Amino acid sequence: MQGFAGKVAVVTGAGSGIGRALAVELARAGAQLAISDVDTEGLAQTEQRLTALGVRVKADRLDVTEREVFIGYADEVKDHFGKVNQIYNNAGIAFSGDVEVSEFKDIERVMDVDFWGVVNGTKAFLPHLIASGDGHVINISSLFGLLSMPGQAAYNAAKFAVRGFTEALHQEMAIAKHPVKVTTVHPGGIKTAIARNATTVEGVDHAAMADFFDRRLASTSAEEAARVILDGVSKNRARVLIGNDARALDLLVRLTGSRYQRLFSFVIPRFGPR
Ligand SMILES: NC(=O)c1ccc[n+]([C@@H]2O[C@H](COP(=O)([O-])OP(=O)(O)OC[C@H]3O[C@@H](n4cnc5c(N)ncnc54)[C@H](O)[C@@H]3O)[C@@H](O)[C@H]2O)c1
């Protein structure tokens, strides 16, 4: 992968899944890495893999919802490496539950991690990315930031919000002529621990949901997802879709407009566990 050698890249949620795969691919491409996660065991495993590749790594426990800590962390990364070129705001959680039976706190938790975590990371690192003269913000939304699903209102809200925030930032950087590129990523089903790590409202069979996701919905490996993301980053794409599922459903929504909602409310209950 071209264009990453010597760059300093920050990856949140790097202790598992797409974050770990991104960190490994970036290291292979010659980047120096600042990786973080709340899961320190998973993070240590990622760190070992990066160290074995011979790159400079800074690994820290970081909860992306802790804004002041995140801002301090951005300064630390800059001081450690001397510059920061790229941030991959990747850390995220999933939650399933219909609005009617979801608690406010569950919806707020998803917004805190999946939306505010991205805002915190973007704002904390933006001054450093501008100062680098060659910056890039990469925010991980979802296929569920392009279309909504029953049972996914909280996750949909957070991922649509990431898309809106990131697409506005893209335009602002261009208008201000800042040397910062901006990419929004929309993965379809990726083979990671996300469904197993997810929470659900009471009454939903969590194990059955996770099993259904792992067997039927997760079609792309995390490694392939990371390669597609880095390819999009190197080509300065504003929007990156990952997987045939993401491409097909994005097309369906664009063709049907708001009518996809009627279609989904008929099809989804017949298709999988709820
Ligand atoms: N797997 C998919 O099918 C899929 C699809 C679309 C979007 N995504 C998005 O991709 C991103 C990565 O997810 P993944 O599939 O690799 O899941 P994953 O569960 O394997 O990894 C997510 C990582 O984020 C970390 N994390 C969770 N809360 C955190 C917090 N508050 N602060 C810091 N780290 C935290 C977890 O500890 C974990 O290591 C997420 O934003 C997710 O929403 C995933």
Could you please describe the fold and organization of this structure?
- By secondary structure, the protein is of the alpha/beta class.
- It has a single domain, classed as Rossmann fold (3-Layer(aba) Sandwich).
- It contains 10 helices and 11 strands.
- It has helices at 17-28, 40-52, 67-81, 104-132, 153-175, 194-197, 206-217, 222-234, 244-256, 260-271; strands spanning 8-11, 32-37, 57-61, 86-89, 95-96, 135-140, 180-187, 190-191, 199-200, 220-221, 239-242.
- The strands form 3 sheets. The chain has a 7-stranded parallel beta sheet with strand order 3-2-1-4-6-7-11, sandwiched between helices. Strands 5-9 form a two-stranded parallel sheet. The chain has a two-stranded parallel ribbon with strand order 8-10.
- Strand 6, helix 5 and strand 7 (180-187) form a beta-alpha-beta unit.
- The longest helix is centred in the middle third of the chain and has 29 residues, at 104-132.
- Nicotinamide-adenine-dinucleotide binds at residues 12-13, 15-19, 37-39, 42, 62-65, 90-93, 113-114, 117, 140, 142-143, 187, 189-190, 192-194, 197, 218.
- Residues 12-13, 15-19, 37-39, 42, 62-65, 90-93, 113-114, 117, 140, 142-143, 187, 189-190, 192-194, 197, 218 line the site of nicotinamide-adenine-dinucleotide (NAD).
- Pfam families: adh_short.
- This is Short-chain type dehydrogenase/reductase.
- Residues 7-193 form the Ketoreductase domain.
- One of its GO terms (molecular function) is oxidoreductase activity.
